[in-house]
Design brief:
S-adenosylmethionine decarboxylase; 10 strands; about 30% strand; S-AdoMet_deCO2ase_bac; alpha+beta
Length: about 270
């Protein structure tokens, strides 16, 4: 098996499709309805379509891709989406479909519609709160799908560093096969044992991590949950040092409960209480 920086001498085009699905949660304690509304408004402004577009531009630069088209949209009351069509190699202007804007979005348009080809980058945001829950969440879903020699794994550390992530779920899958000049099939073209191998160690030290991998299908899954809950990072419109110790402990427990259930994908505490 070859590493990411080593090359296989292929026959024709590299037909492998590599897809990285990156899902993060930002958690916040917002007790009152006003706090919840303020948090959702704040997070919606922080991660609007313009900022998300800039983050995805950074992804395309890191993986060495070229932008063919950008489509972005902010939603009412909240949320945003961005889709970028990319290509491994630059294309002459006369070969680019006329519907593509090559990353130059006209200022007069609120939304630019795009088609997606073999390689693309997308992001969608989902702010969430509930009247019966004092913990609000903000979810970001990012998908980077490439074909050819470029790999979305190279952008993993950049993506993690672009968001305040309490919980991270990462899926990586390689589809299809390609051939070398001798006709030998390759179902994956780089060494891979865990997604964690491509994450900076300083980042991993901050999280509890688990892997679920299906090696014979080239499917890799990693989940990460922040280890330390510093209330300075979770209270909205409130200073933790103004609260009594028992109140801080109660808030920390509520945050921990929400994170554990999201991390495991189960209503764990509902089952315990029943």
């Amino acid at each position: 098996m070859l590493g990411l920086n080593e090359k296989i001498k292929l026959y024709g085009f590299n037909n492998l499709t590599k897809t990285l699905s990156f899902n993060i949660y930002d958690i916040c304690y917002a007790k009152t309805e006003r706090d919840k509304k303020d948090y959702i408004t704040y997070i919606d402004e922080q991660y609007n379509s313009e900022r998300l577009t800039n983050i995805l531009r950074g992804v395309t630069k890191i993986i060495g891709a070229n932008i063919l088209n950008i489509s972005k949209q902010d939603y009412d009351p909240q949320g945003a989406s961005v889709a970028i069509l990319i290509t491994e190699q630059g294309m002459p202007s006369d070969q680019v479909d006329p519907s593509c804007n090559k990353g130059e979005i006209p200022l007069m348009k609120d939304c630019v519609m795009a088609h997606l080809d073999k390689s693309h980058v997308t992001v969608h945001t989902y702010p969430e709160s509930h009247p019966d829950n004092e913990v609000s969440t903000f979810r970001v879903d990012i998908d980077v799908s490439t074909c050819g020699q470029i790999s979305p794994l190279n952008a993993l550390n950049y993506l993690i560093g672009s968001f305040d992530s309490d919980i991270i779920t990462i899926d990586y899958r390689v589809r299809g096969f390609t051939r070398d000049v001798n006709g030998h099939k390759y179902f994956i073209d780089h060494a891979m044992s865990s997604i964690q191998d491509y994450i900076d160690q300083k980042t991993l030290d901050k999280y509890d991590c688990i892997d679920v991998n299906v090696y014979n299908s080239n499917i890799f899954h990693t989940k990460m949950m922040i280890k330390e809950i510093d209330l300075n990072n979770y209270l909205f419109n409130e200073d933790p040092y103004d609260l009594k110790p028992e109140v801080r402990r109660e808030i920390r427990n509520k945050l921990s409960k929400e994170m554990i259930e999201i991390y495991h994908g189960l209503n764990v505490y509902d089952r315990i209480e029943k």
